[in-house]
Amino acid sequence: MKDGFEKEIRCESTGKICYREKEARTTLNGAKHHGNRSKKIPKRMYLCKECGYYHLTSQKSENISCSKRNYNQKRNRIILFEYKKLWREERSLFSAA
Q1: Do 41 and 58 touch, CB atoms closer than 8 A?
Q2: Mean pLDDT by 10-residue block, N- to C-terminus, for the chain (97 residues)?
Q3: Which of 6, 18, 36, 84 meets the CB 3.0–4.6 Å disulfide criterion with 53?
Q4: Are residues 56 and 66 in the same domain?
Q5: Under a CB-based contact definition with an 8 Å cutoff, are residues 56 and 17 in contact?
Q6: Please, is 51 exposed, middle or buried when counting C-beta atoms within 10 Å of its C-beta (0-12, 13-18, 19+)?
């Protein structure tokens, strides 16, 4: 967040620059289109629970979300495997009859 003097305000807990929602979106979009390859390019914004402002990060998603997504993918694979197994058993029962 910048005040009238264009001074960056930083989060006390993370040390990251604080943005209002509109500022964060504008900065994020500008970085995506005009990013410097030698620096990390912000990929998303998130609301900080500590300061109540938005921060930018170069990480694609939160670790919790990644873990949950991986868990869901594994669970879906197991469900699909069990479904295929049952389908084959059912199919063999009808073809044997």
Answers
A1: yes
A2: 65 90 90 67 87 88 56 73 80 72
A3: 18
A4: no
A5: yes
A6: middle
Backbone torsions φ then ψ of 18, nearest 5 degrees: -90, 135
Pair 14, 33 in one domain: yes
Count of the separate structural domains present in the chain:
2
Same domain, 41 and 67: no
- Residue 67, token pair as written in the block: 């873990």
The whole-number pLDDT of residue 69 equals: 59
The pLDDT of residue 4 is: 52
Q: What is the pLDDT of residue 29?
A: 86
Global confidence as pTM: 0.53
- Whole-angstrom Cα distance, residue 76 to residue 52? 36
Quick one: 84 and 55 in the same domain?
A: no
Q: Are strands 44-47 and 54-57 parallel, antiparallel or unpaired?
A: antiparallel
> Which pLDDT value is given to residue 42?
86
